[in-house]
Amino acid sequence: MDFTFLIDKTILVAIIFAISLGIAAYSTYFERKFAGFFQDRIGPDRAGPFGILQPIADGVKLVMKEEIIPAGANPFLFIAGPSLSMLTACMTTAVLPWGSYLEIGGRKIPLQVADVNIGILYVFGVVSLGVYGLMIGGWASNNKFSLLGAIRAASQNISYEIAMGLSIIALVMMSGTLSIGTIVEQQQNSYWYVVLQPLGFLIFLICSFAETNRTPFDLPECEAELVGGYHTEYSSMKLGFYLFAEYTNMFVSSAVMSALYFGGYSVPFISALHLDQNLVAIIGTLAFFGKILFFIFFFMWVRWTIPRFRYDQLMKLGWQILIPLSIINIVLTGIFILVFDK
Amino acid sequence: MKEFFYFLSFLAVLTSLMVVVAKNPVHSVLYLIMTFFAIAGHYILLNAQFLAVVHIIVYAGAIMVLFLFVIMFLNLNAETEPQKPLILKVAAGVAAGLLFLTLVAAFKGAENQVAVTGGDSQIGLIKNLGKVLFNDFLLPFEITSLLFLSAMIGAVMLAKKDTPEGPKSKDLKKEMLLEKEII
Predict the structure, then answer these.
(1) Predicted confidence (pLDDT) per residue in A225-252, tens digit
(2) In terms of CA atoms, which chain A residue is nearest residue B67?
(3) Mutate: best of B53, B55, B129, partner A, most A CBs <10 A
(4) Out of A260, B99, B153, B165, which residue is the most buried by the measure of CB atoms under 10 Å away?
(5) Does A158 contact B68 at a Cβ distance shorter than 8 Å?
(6) A104: phi then psi, degrees, rounded to nearest 5
């Protein structure tokens, strides 16, 4: 393993980390701005021009607040909960392709940290671990509302993981590979998978709302029933980590959706322009971020449009509608492949 | 690579010991999850990435979440734990000691064995694994899935056992009769 390779990857990791955390931070600002827009009010406008320094002000406020660990809580696990949430939220970005490759000094630098041959399974594994942060934090708080929130989070995540996995299986049947980099390349020369897998995409979209605990599925932190849900007892930056992890998760699942179903960094017909490879890569990366930002907007749009589900409705939707639908989708995909491909 | 192996082995042995030693059942489950991660690390060292990730998804991601879920519901802790009589503790100690003796005897002499080198280092990759599984071992694979299915159906049957004449349905019947009378 040569030295330049390590430097390339280190720089790439640092940039991706900075971008994903930066976008997550500014999502909080835009979430509030959009909420203001949807509800016909102004939203945050005090900190800086148009309130654009609001995330920084929020961050400073959260860091400066007093740390409280409740007397009956388990101190180690109480701190481990939000840390795990943040860790699992950041882990997925390692396998996503952010662009094709740059050519600097005759060297090819792929804009992906690790193109592992099991990329999709890695993403799925990290998603399935995401619930531990909420469960451990909710249990360690030693508060019945936190515990109820944690249990809701666990059952919700397990239920929707099944449908999500089944919808991914249909996609993998079409692509024939588990590497996300290859899946994006396939979409560059052919249709985007959303055209070939509309039902699969819809199921995946609904499940990612449930996995990120966003409205209409934010039952684990349902304030009307559970005070604050799993983070009732949390204060200062530990609460900040939980809230921040939600926005990071939103960014990551937007990125996964755009990569798997909307062609990732591929721009239609860009090869017809015969541009320089570096320029193509940069345009592709910008296009990818455009798609991601659209999905983040979509998450917010839904949040301020659709009210929260009831818990039994949530379970019914997961087990009785989405799972049968995704199995039907697998069968249909099999028939499609048999009839049209060979 | 050797350092990784020793580190992961140390982690696996330590955390699996902690599973047994920890007083709090929730801590036990968390140590068990760490053990699974250490074992997944071993799979990666053996270039079996698919097995490693599936191990994480199935055990750490699904089964252990359910374990944690149930244990959180039960709210077990040191105070409510029933104290077992001394004779049971002694019997457990003797039985575990005998098992340990058997294991030591079984592995005695293994240190002289030469490790098998060579072999196909690519066998753990998903493509090769899938080909082997669906060409050479199709029947055992399908039989295993049938076994899983029957286990699942069994679990559902056990869970549903009480519902036909359970207290809930009786109440419902009474309510329906009452409603009819009112009408």
Answers:
(1) 777 778 888 888 888 888 888 888 889 8
(2) A154
(3) B53
(4) A260
(5) no
(6) -120, 120
